[in-house]
Write a structure and sequence with these properties.
- The chain has 4 helices and 2 strands, in the order βααααβ.
- The protein is globular.
- It has a two-stranded antiparallel sheet with strand order 1-2.
- It is mainly α.
- Helices cover 53% and strands 9% of the residues.
């Protein structure tokens, strides 16, 4: 199963936020954002921080599909 963060990038655009804004607001590292940019798995703790910062649910920022 593959992970996709396209929903997150669209949400950032909709909220007029940059990745650097997300790093500051969520308290995550640039490495986490880089991993997400490459559609790699990240820790649930990081997802929780991002969801709290954006006031959204995990389903609003990540999706899974069957393609590896």
């Amino acid at each position: 199963m593959a992970v996709s963060y396209k929903k997150l990038w669209k949400l950032l655009i909709d909220k007029n936020l940059k990745k650097t804004d997300l790093i500051k607001e969520a308290g995550v590292t640039s490495n986490i954002i880089a991993r997400m940019g490459n559609n790699q798995y990240i820790a649930m703790e990081s997802l929780e921080k991002i969801c709290n910062a954006l006031k959204c649910d995990v389903g609003d920022i990540v999706s899974f599909n069957d393609k590896l």
